[in-house]
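Backbone-to-sequence.
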């Protein structure tokens, strides 16, 4: 639980750094960074909900009070998780279009991606709440947040009780998540291949351009690995729950990794798009140095 709290706090701080860079440094703004800002806001909602859920779980609330809170928390965190996965896939599509020199298509994609990534998850979680599918989840309650309710009042297709739970878990999260697992690494592979096919003679490039290309290539390698490295643990536990595999579903290490990973996309975004982006990294260090110089000196110094 403590690892989940730390990961949540770091993600909220990381999102704050991304928002700060967007608001105050106009020269780093771009269509891609706009999508990253939307992605980061959705990840901040997830982290905030998980953080509050962890505190509520540690507070040992009465079952009735916690269940009411759980439904509301599940609405926001489940919806934001789907928003995050959809923006992750659209960012990959945007990068592919830009690398393929289809700039007009990439620019047109941004408003469409924003609309679909927000409206579709909102409709899904609204339907899930209306059908009584959101609430305290046996799958994720150990690590402090809520998802699909195990109660008998879940409505849905004419399936068994467990079948309806599986149905809603795929509709309200796992379907989009599994699609992102497959789609994102494959598309980043094609992005790298397209970049390699357009290799420039490094002798014709100045040092700044070479460093920018190196930054881009480094991030293209890291993005799918970080994405899978953070998110895969919850999916392993989910598969263990479906298959009644106690090693996967009840493994304490996997539960801890899920607690860190599912809440950790915010600080991962900050690493990728702030500290691993040269232009932003330089501005951060310049800002820190300026603040240090302007700090008031002690009279005796």
């Amino acid at each position: 639980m403590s690892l989940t709290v730390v990961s949540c706090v770091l993600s909220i701080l990381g999102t704050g750094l991304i928002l700060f860079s967007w608001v105050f440094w106009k020269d780093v703004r771009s269509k891609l960074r706009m999508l990253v800002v939307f992605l980061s806001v959705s990840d901040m909602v997830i982290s905030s909900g998980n953080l509050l859920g962890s505190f509520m779980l540690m507070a040992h609330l009465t079952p009735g009070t916690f269940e009411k809170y759980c439904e509301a928390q599940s609405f926001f965190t489940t919806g934001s998780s789907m928003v995050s996965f959809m923006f992750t896939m659209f960012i990959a599509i945007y990068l592919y279009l830009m690398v393929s020199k289809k700039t007009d298509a990439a620019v047109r994609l941004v408003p469409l991606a924003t609309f679909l990534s927000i409206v579709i998850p909102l409709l899904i979680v609204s339907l899930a709440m209306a059908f009584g599918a959101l609430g305290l989840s046996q799958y994720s309650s150990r690590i402090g947040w809520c998802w699909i309710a195990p109660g008998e009042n879940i409505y849905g297709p004419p399936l068994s009780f467990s079948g309806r739970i599986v149905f809603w878990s795929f509709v309200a999260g796992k379907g989009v998540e599994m699609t992102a697992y497959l789609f994102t690494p494959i598309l980043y592979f094609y992005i790298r291949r397209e970049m390699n096919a357009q290799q420039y003679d490094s002798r014709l490039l100045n040092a700044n351009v070479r460093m920018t290309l190196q930054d881009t290539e480094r991030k293209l390698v890291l993005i799918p690995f970080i994405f899978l490295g953070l998110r895969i643990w919850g999916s392993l536990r989910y598969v263990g729950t479906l298959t009644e595999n106690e090693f996967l579903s009840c493994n304490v290490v996997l539960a801890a990794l899920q607690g860190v990973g599912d809440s950790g996309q915010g600080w991962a975004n900050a690493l990728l798009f702030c500290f691993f982006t040269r232009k932003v990294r330089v501005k951060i260090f310049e800002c820190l140095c300026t603040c240090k110089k302007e700090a008031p000196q002690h009279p005796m110094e």
